[in-house]
């Protein structure tokens, strides 16, 4: 089993970061890799079991992911890949946010952590680990930018 773990500090309050990252269908709004996301069968994006279907901005890549849990109390989201162009099996991922209470940031800060576990062929492992890690890094930085833009309005 391969595990990828990324953590980041976002210079926005927990509620600001969560407002962006909570939206299971919102990935293209803050992430440079993805476009054309929709929730299958017209279900709400916060319904456990809903499937988001999105495409990569470059190439023919696609991902379908099922929402396994979403907690406004714990500020976490857990999902699994149902089908993807990414060569993985048994992919499960979780994103969690926590407030940073001791900070010099004037308007608060948030600690984010995102992990995924999956099976991958040895020949693909290095590239997949890099892609998954970059996906999580860019999600945190993009969400921070969107939250900062919303704050400025």
Helices and strands, with pairings:
Elements: E1 2-10, H1 14-21, H2 27-30, E2 34-39, E3 51-56, E4 62-71, E5 76-84, E6 88-100, E7 109-120, H3 125-152
Antiparallel strand pairs: 1-7, 2-3, 3-4, 4-5, 5-6, 6-7
Helix pairs in contact: 1-3
How would you sum up this structure, described in words?
The chain has a seven-stranded antiparallel β-sheet with strand order 1-7-6-5-4-3-2. The model has no long low-confidence stretch (mean pLDDT 93). The N and C termini lie far apart (44 Å). The protein is globular, with a radius of gyration of 15 Å. It is built from three helices and seven strands. With 153 residues, the chain is of the alpha+beta class.
Summarize the structure.
By secondary structure, the chain is α+β, with helices and mostly antiparallel strands.
Keywords:
about 150 residues, alpha+beta, 3 helices, about 25% helix, about 40% strand
Order of helices and strands: EHHEEEEEEH
The main sheet comes to:
7 strands, antiparallel
DSSP strand content:
35-45%
Distance between the termini: 44 Å
By DSSP (H or I, 4+ residues per run), the number of helices equals 3
Low-confidence stretches: none
Share of helix, binned = 25-40%
What shape does the CA trace take?
globular
Find the structural class using helix and strand composition.
alpha+beta
Output mean pLDDT: 93
């Amino acid at each position: 089993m391969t595990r990828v773990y990324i953590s980041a500090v976002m210079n926005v309050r927990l509620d600001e970061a969560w407002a962006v990252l909570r939206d299971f269908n919102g990935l293209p709004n803050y992430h440079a890799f993805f476009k054309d996301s929709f929730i299958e069968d017209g279900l709400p994006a916060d319904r456990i079991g809903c499937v988001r279907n999105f495409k990569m901005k470059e190439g023919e890549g696609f991902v379908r992911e099922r929402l396994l849990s979403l907690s406004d109390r714990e500020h976490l989201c857990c999902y699994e890949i149902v089908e993807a162009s990414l060569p993985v099996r048994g992919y499960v991922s979780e994103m969690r946010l926590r407030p940073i209470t001791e900070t010099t940031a004037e308007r608060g800060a948030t600690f984010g952590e995102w992990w995924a576990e999956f099976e991958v062929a040895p020949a693909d492992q290095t590239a997949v680990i890099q892609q998954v890690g970059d996906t999580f890094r860019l999600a945190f930085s993009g969400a921070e930018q969107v939250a900062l833009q919303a704050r400025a309005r």
